[in-house]
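Exercise 7.
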Amino acid sequence: MSKSDNTEDELSPDEIAEFKDYDLDDQVEILIHIIDGKSFKNLIDAVKQMGKTGIFTFKPESFDYSCYNSEFNSLVEFTIIKSMLNKINECEYRFVSNLEEYTIELPIDLLKNALSQINIKDGITIFKPKTDNIIYIKKYSKIEEKDTAFSALHIPKMRDINITKSPEYSLKESNPTISTTLDSFKFKIDPIIKSKHSSVLLSATHEKICITGSTVEGALLSTVSITDLSPKISISGLSSLGIRPTFVPTIEKEATLVQPILKLFKKMSNFSGDNKINFYIEAGNPIKIMSTIKNFGFIKVYIICEKE
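Solution. The predicted structure, written as tokens, is:
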């Protein structure tokens, strides 16, 4: 099958027949099967907001996506974890390769287009044969109980890929600085998205997140405030329990938000598993924002601060 790089094609009947002949047990080195194809499609649609090209890294225990956008001063990444996905009925992730990991750089529009026909009752299978430099995608209709669409993504020629590494945090991901529901957060930022403010500022402390939209002249048009969903025990409350509180210095951070980042936040509810969005505020690090991908992965956004 000879095609140019950076293309996405619907397969011909002969190619579909060849596609169906692949032995998914023996002839593939990467296999992803997700019964909830719509959520995966929504995930790709969300991360597309941040850039045209993403880096996919396949490893024995997970596959990762990352996109660093210097214009937005931000990094978005998601991870789908084998041990979590494989616990779900009719889902599977498999990486069988002589390599420790396999990394490709792929125009995200190609993947989005290949997933465009996925509906709410559809599953997807994504695989790469051992012998071809092509990623195949098939749609499985749970209603019709058959494969109903086939696509092929032709992997670009390999080149040196510079992967931006996410920073390390001392804060445990199970203990965010601020946590709230995605429904509430989406409701609060929606007016700012619709107003298309010239400037949107995110300011963060250990107590609350503020997002403020303003005009070019600096006039404030709208401000939303997000406080923690689960109130933490106060210092006086800790003392009454006989616990000696540790002093936590106040940290104040500021970062500029652009419309694509706000739209990404809004779209998180389309694939989140727990309807929560968590913020991590730590000295010397970007603001980290995290949510779940159903019950098989996580998405994280890092926003570089202009003031701390």
